[in-house]
């Protein structure tokens, strides 16, 4: 890239140097000699909502640009990513469900069922860990995984490059986004990540109340906020509504031998069946809940916490200290759900 | 003057002839063949399904019978150490040319030919069980040949969610009622060497001294490397009983994986051979 820029500069200098000669000798038009200026591809500045944590440092190395994001969005919806051209990223990550879906576990090519529930894609630029077990730390490293996974797209990156190379529109977009037409794996990963970095959700009723934009909580929402602060916020903290820690909260266990929670990555016994605390933003749209869709509704989740969770040596201390449960009255559950629904961002999910 | 020139020419001639004949007898380089002999103790393993009557059955230190239906592992980062201590790396940064999947069900994979090895006497071999971290990224663009070889449907050595290669894949049966066992290993490590941010490093560096020195030159030596899978459960580092207690019979994640990795590839500190040893060096 840098080499290319230097080359361009040298070329331009040359062009400028010979320009007077040309003008003298032949009254050639300027346009013929001077290379057309590279098409504008301005950086898209990410607005960091008030109170949000700082950006994942990877964002600095891959700042979203106008055409990078446009390309990423197109690739995100590209079914040629799958071996038989039926599955795109957006097949599971549907905007109307905060970029998750309604399935218990993700369903990919040939209706193959994945290990886990599709995670929503929102506020990725502020996350330090991705996926339920935090196996990915840089968003640019994620797109390859579904492309090659048997239960998801069952393809390979060279197969994908071959297929999208036949589409003229892509050549144009890669050129606009990256300076030339070459389609590389790196550029695919980077543009998809750029698109995902721009998926920021911070325009819920909760946000507008916080920003004093004239809206106020209903009585139930206000009561629910108090319940939330007392009984949920120790894990679902910060303006992302997750502290991004990994915890075993004693949910029913996925019987697959592929599953170990966070310990799948770390190998640490204390991480066994621990999962990343999910953000509660837009959670109204992301049912079913739990790492493999154990709960159909928010009410079912709260009932489970109230009734008592599965004991484990590494059960979260918050639960252990409360007799392996989070006691909640029916009224508290109702109010908590009212509050949680104020975290729904209608614009983000395209419902407004 | 002319005479002197002729004499000089004449005197050079035999020298040229000598050096010519020398070149003929000792090439500057030749092949080394690594032959992998996968065993239970000293018996070469025969694979078999649950009901097989021909499969090689092993008994662990804790008395647990077991046999395999599938046995695969990745060898890469091969270095040969000359008698004078010089290290000759063999395509260590090119998985297409320097890495292979040893697969017990494919006899042709049991011989890995190292080509164009500089002539000389060698005293030691180093290699990796698995793929070192900086190359372990499932990069199809960079190493299409190894990617394809490892990912083939009958090989399945891609660890997709870990975006790396499986380093070992063992399938089989244990106890007299032939319950399934399935041990997969691979790295889940993130970050740069020396500054890993998370995960388990399943790559193991193996160092083996040659009992007799292979001499590359006129000869293309054949070195037999024994991989004794008895060590899986009865290793130098861990004694494992499958089922309950200290190990689940199915390891597809980093949980419990290191127990098996340390037995197969050594614990990386005081054991740098794991299950491997050199059983034979043929110089002809």
Automatic annotation (TrEMBL), chain A:
Heme c 2 binds at residues 232, 235-236. Binds 2 heme groups per subunit. Keywords: Heme, Iron, Metal-binding, Oxidoreductase, Periplasm, Peroxidase, Signal. It is found in: Periplasm. Binds 2 heme groups. The keyword Signal applies. Its main location: periplasm. Residues 219-344 form the Cytochrome c domain. Its cofactor is heme. GO terms for molecular function: cytochrome-c peroxidase activity; electron transfer activity; heme binding; metal ion binding. It holds the Pfam family CCP_MauG. It comes from the Bacteria. Heme c 1 binds at residues 89, 92-93. Signal peptide: none annotated. SUPFAM superfamilies: Cytochrome c (SSF46626). InterPro entries: Cyt_c-like_dom, Cyt_c-like_dom_sf, Cytochrome_c_Peroxidase/MauG, Di-haem_cyt_c_peroxidsae, MauG/Cytc_peroxidase. GO terms for cellular component: periplasmic space. PANTHER family: BLL6722 PROTEIN, CYTOCHROME C PEROXIDASE-RELATED. This is Cytochrome c peroxidase.
TrEMBL record, chain B:
It comes from the Bacteria. The keyword Signal applies. InterPro entries: MbnP-like_dom. Residues 30-242 form the Copper-binding protein MbnP-like domain. Keywords: Signal. The keyword Signal applies. This is Copper-binding protein MbnP-like domain-containing protein. It comes from Albibacterium bauzanense.
